Structures are given as C-alpha cells and as structure tokens.
Amino acid sequence: MSELTKTSPNGLASGPERKRDAAQVKGIMKLHPLLLILILGLIPRLALLVFFHDLPIRISDALDYDQLGTSLAETGSYASADGVPTSLRPPFYPVMVAGLYRMFGAHNLLAVHIFQIVLSLLTTVIVYKTGVEIYCRRVGVVAAAIICFYPTLLGFNHQILSEVLFTFFQSVIVLLTTLVIKRNLLTRLVMLGIVLGLGALTRSILWLFTPLLAAYMFLACGPGLWNRFRCAAIPMTCFLLTIAPWVYRNSKVQETLTFIDVMGGRNVMMGNYEFTPMERSWATVTDVTGDRVWHRVLAAANPGYRDLTQGQIDKLAMKYGIRFALSHPGLSLRRSLIKFFNFWQLERELIAGSMAGYFGPLSKPTILTTAILICGAYVTVIFGAIFGAILVPPTDVRVRWMLVLTIAFPCLLHSIAFAHSRYHLPLIPILAIYAAAAATSWRDVRRHRLFPLAAGVCLILLLSWVREFVMVDMVHFR
C-alpha cells in the first residue's frame, strides 16, 4: 500500500493525507472570523432594508440621481429634467442606478438598496484584506468588524447617493496601491488605473488626486528607474483611457475642456466669495439668497453670462473664488481653518434627516438612540484612528505615507472649497484600519512616549465639536 493511501488502525487518514486535511481545516478557520462578520452584518442591513424600502426620496442630491438614472434608463440621454444635456454630476453612479432601473423597473429604489448592501459587504472584505496587508490578520478582522457595523455607512446603504459606491472604490484603490508598492505586478497596475478612473467618474476629486498618486508611485516603487516609471505611467495611462470618452463628451457639450463635472469652480466660489458665511459654508447653496447668491454675483461681474455653458460658468466661478481668496488671505485662512474642522465634524446627516421627518415619523427616543449610536461610533473610530496613526503606523514607510496622502488630499481640498462631514465618509475604511491597529496593540499604545500627543489631538478635535455645538448649532436652532 502506498504512503498516500495509508490509514491508521482506527480508519483515519495518516501521513500526508492527515497533514493535507489539517491544512484545509486551518484554511477554513482562517476565513471564519470574516465569514462570521459578514453573516452577522446581514442582520442590521436586512432590518434597515425593511424600514427604508418604501420611503420616498426627500434629499435633493438623491432626487437628482434618481432623475438622471431614469433619463439614462428610458432615453439613453444624460440630461436634466428638461432634456438638456448636463455635466453637473459625475456619471458613474447615475449609470449604475440606470442599469438597475432597466433590469428591475424605473424608480426601483429597493434594487438600488440591495445592490448597495452587496457593495458594502464587499467593502468589508476589501478592508479586511487591506488590514492584513498593512498590519496583520488580527487588525484585518477588527477593521472589517468596524466597517461592517459602522452606523452611518449602514444608513447610507439605503440612500440614493454615491457614498457607498465611492467608499468601495476608495477602499479598492488603497488595497491595490498597497499591493503595487509591495509587489508591482502588471495586472495590479492596470487594475489600479481602471479603478481610479471609475472612482473619478463617481466623485471628481479623484481626477485631481490621480496625478499626485502617480508621482508618489514613481518615488515609492522600485528598484530601478524603469520600474518606477512603469508604476506611475501604467496606472495613469489606464486612468486616462477610462475617463477619456466622458471627457470628450463633456468638452463637446460644454464647449470648453471639462473633465468629470462642472461643480469644482462652483464649490470653490461658494466657499470663497464675499457672501460666504464664516460658519457652515457648506450651507451657502441654501442659506445665501437674493442678490448674494453666487451665480447672481458672478452674472453681475460678467456681461454675457446667460449665453455661457455650464462648463464656461464653472471656469469663471473658479477664477472668481481663487481671486477673492488670494486678495483676502486673512479671511480665507480663518475660513479654511473652520472648514477643516467641518470636514471632521460629527456625522449628523442621518440624524438631521430623522429630525426633519425624511425617514417617516420617528419617536424622540428612537432619534436620540440613533444619534448616540452614530456619534458614538464616529468618536470611537476617529479617536482610535488618531492613536493608531501616531503611535502604531504601518512599518512600511511607503505605505504609511500613501495613507497620509490619501487622507490629507481630500481634507485639504475641502478646506479650501467648502467642507462637510459627509465628505470624510469614504476615508472611514482607512480610519477603521488605524483604529483596529490601536485597539489590538492597546497595551503598547498606553505606554508609548507619544501618547500625550495623540491625546492632545483628540482633545483639539473634541473642543472643535463643542465649539460647533455652542457657537453655531445652539444659535442656529434658537
């Protein structure tokens, strides 16, 4: 009898078979924590699906996405409600909505919710893999649990908004970039460029970030000049090829070079002109009225304004906002500091929607419980991330600075234009990984010589929330 077919007297496999069986069992056990997280993660998702499935759309951005998706599904035209081709919003999320509407019927919000639930679970898997690559398996498991049950992201699964899709793309980009830095295979470089393109077609901030990331890849990857060049050039080329058809369409419609959308200039001006409020600059679009509205100010300063396309108006708005910011440096610096803290503000979008009745009649205890869960989860994750980033950074310096760049870039841009806590949501997966690193190394963290520094940063952030509540929210709700 050959060694491969030997059995022990009790009938059990022995030798190589036993080793192979043990390895298979070990492999299954390795997946078990993640599988358990995903299975348990279905419980709150299905419960929220039942709650949200028949609620009408009340958020203006969501109404726009629904309208664009319906237009694409029924007519194949990316156009506003009056049938005019538009470039106001990036196309990929409306295209996804349109595809679901074609398969399951127009305005089928349930189909979108279910698709976004699947995406959120895939994001959990991506975060697990990223945590393992950057730190270890234990960190990956904890980070996956954080992101799987993160209350705000659970709520956004049931909104017709691009947060879930963009968070997925952002997570994939971080994972692929980490893998490329460690092992720059051709397939990964190509995939990175394509995902960067799709992400940019979902949120335009990525088309500005991609050249910066490519430059960083040139510096971080190696060895050899040729290897550095291919690590920068291949993702950049694939990115440009992915967005090229949309750039061509936009530029033709707007009669000027237009990349992803025509909101960049508007956002810069709304955050940087004479009537931008010092607090809550993100509310300029609703709170500033009459002749102080940004487009009326711009029209008064530019004869022939009414004959311009959306893209041409956006370029004028960009110039106006930059010119005003440079000519008022002190004011702009104060505004940017406030906007920086607005970016990291407590996550109150779903709470505000609940209080406004967007999600049906809810009792005060229900809203209060929801607020505690949402704010408590964010405070825990952001404080944990601060300790993790400062005290337990990744050992690979190249990955460490890539993560810093990924977080700092959107924060900087929103601090210049206008910021809202909703815009930090795609960064929560990175923060979850940092928080998991701190949680799994807490004994070492407590004794770290930089512990006071991390605690001080947390205190500054806490004071900014208190200031916002006392000086802005209390006044606003009087």
- The shape, in one word, is globular
Question: Biggest β-sheet, characterized?
Answer: none
* Low-confidence spans: 1-13
Q: Give the helices and strands as they follow along the chain.
A: HHHHHHHHHHHHHHHHHHHHH
Strand content: under 5%
Total strand segments: 0
Rg of Cα set: 25 Å
Structural class: mainly alpha
Tally of helical runs: 21
- Summarize the amount of helix as a percent range: over 70%
What is the average per-residue confidence, as pLDDT, rounded to a whole number?
92
How far is it from the N-terminal to the C-terminal residue, by CA?
88 Å
What is the secondary structure topology, with strand pairs?
Layout: H1 16-52, H2 60-75, H3 92-104, H4 109-134, H5 137-148, H6 151-156, H7 163-182, H8 186-200, H9 205-220, H10 225-254, H11 264-270, H12 284-287, H13 294-301, H14 310-327, H15 329-343, H16 349-355, H17 364-391, H18 397-416, H19 428-440, H20 442-446, H21 451-476
Describe this structure as you would to a colleague.
Among the domains are: 75 residues, no CATH class; 66 residues, no CATH class. It is mostly helical. Helix 2 packs across helix 3 and helix 4 runs antiparallel to helix 5. The protein is built from 21 helices and no strands.
